[in-house]
Amino acid sequence: MRQLPLGVQLREAARFDSFVPGANAELLARLTGPAPGPVLWLWGRAGTGKTHLLQAACASVGDLGERASYVDPLSGAEPGWLDGCESLDLVALDSLDDVAGNAAWNAALFRLYTLLGESGGRLLVASTTPPASLRFVLPDLQSRLLAAPVYQVHELEDEDRVAVLELRARRRGLELPREAALYLLHRLPRDMHTICGALDRLDAASLAAQRRLTVPFLRAVLEDQAPGAS
After folding, report:
1. CA end-to-end span of the chain, whole Å?
2. For the domain with range 158-225, which CATH number is right: 3.40.50.150, 1.10.8.60, 3.30.450.20, 1.25.40.10?
């Protein structure tokens, strides 16, 4: 797989089999099917799993012995990073909202779009804004991207959030009782970035204290880590 820019690495857990689809089953089937299409656009609120899916797509391509690159402008990628990406089998571009109004990114992305079309490569993009609401510098780029199939990445219901926590805990070798998972959901903001980040910290605290992830232990750790806690 093509080397990634400094600071942008595929997360080891970002695999299709670790994505709990919830209402996104059709999208997951499209991404894992035999012909996902030359261009696909995902959009959804922060924390819905867009980055997970983009990185999982790159990992899946790599597993097949093909080449892919995950590019995120918010992690320091520059327009020039797209140079040469036309030789790859898949380019996954995150945070499209942040480059739509940038002329240099528009030029680089339009060139990549054209060359990938000639080489048979695929382009997967993601944004937090609905595609029709974005305004690009280059009208030709906008018209071509808006012609691609669009999938909204829906937020998970609470039962699916519990399933994510349980799956993430199992992959770490942790036992997370259901009541502990529900406590986290009711105690923290509902976006999965925050919830999974809290589980990561609880994993470290559990290991250090040699304690199980019970509700009293979770409560004590979260209160100790709360802003303003002494």
Report:
1. 46
2. 1.10.8.60
Q: Is the pLDDT at 51 greater than 60, yes or no? A: yes
CA distance 139 to 185: 43
Calculate the average pLDDT of the chain.
Answer: 90
The three-class DSSP label of residue 177 is coil
Beta pairing partners, 126: 42
**pLDDT(230) > 50:** no
| Single-letter code of the amino acid located at 133 | S
Measure the CA–CA gap between 71 and 228, rounded to whole angstroms. 36
| Contact partners, residue 31, CB within 8 Å, separation at least 6 | 16, 40, 53, 56, 57
Closest Cα partner for 216 from 170, 173, 183, 185?
A: 183
